[in-house]
Amino acid sequence: MDCGQSDEKRLTHSFGRLPVQAEQAFMPLASKMLSMSKVTTLGGLEPFDYVQILLSDERQIEGRATAIDYVPNESLRLELRPRHSGVRYELVAEHGGTRWSPVHVRRCDTEADETEWEDLSNVRGVTVREDTPASV
User: Fold this and answer.
1) Euclidean distance between CA atoms 121 and 28, whole angstroms
2) Phi, psi of 26 (to 5 degrees)
3) Contact 26, 18 (CB under 8 A)
4) pLDDT value at position 54?
5) What letter does residue 100 receive in the DSSP assignment?
6) Core-most of 39, 66, 99, 121, by most CB within 10 Å?
7) In a structure prediction context, what are the per-residue pLDDT tens digits for the chain, which is 136 residues long?
């Protein structure tokens, strides 16, 4: 590619894909927007909304929102409880002044002999299912 080409031509070169340098420049913004949309989606839940979560390690969890503590531009804490189970999931994110931390998930089995929180992974995807009955 010619160094004398305009920025516009460089950005649209390679069949419409941005050159590596431009893609890398937009990655922090895209990452921030994805984290923000997960946080706002989770923070906007109502009690008993049914949620499916895809974790970054490809595991999936699901359950009803039972406790939601969301302060925009500050913090998120959400508790999910699967039906017919003593398991609780806690999803937490903090706003660090310029962006949200990844939404992190931990798990606790209240029916186990030792009820300690186990760190799982970060949230990769969120699906809210409104078509599920509201019984816990």
Assistant:
1) 20
2) -90, -10
3) yes
4) 97
5) B
6) 39
7) 444 444 444 443 334 444 444 444 444 434 444 455 899 999 999 999 999 999 999 999 999 999 999 999 999 999 999 998 999 999 999 999 899 999 999 999 988 888 899 999 999 999 998 755 544 3
Provide CB contacts within 8 A for 111, sequence distance 6+.
85, 86
Which helix (DSSP H) or strand (DSSP E) does residue 86 occupy?
none
Residue 14 amino acid letter: S
- So where are the chain's domains? 7-129
CA–CA distance, 108 with 128 (Å, rounded to integer): 22
Phi (first) and psi of residue 67, to 5 degrees: -145, 125
Q: What CA–CA distance (Å, rounded) separates 1 from 83?
A: 58
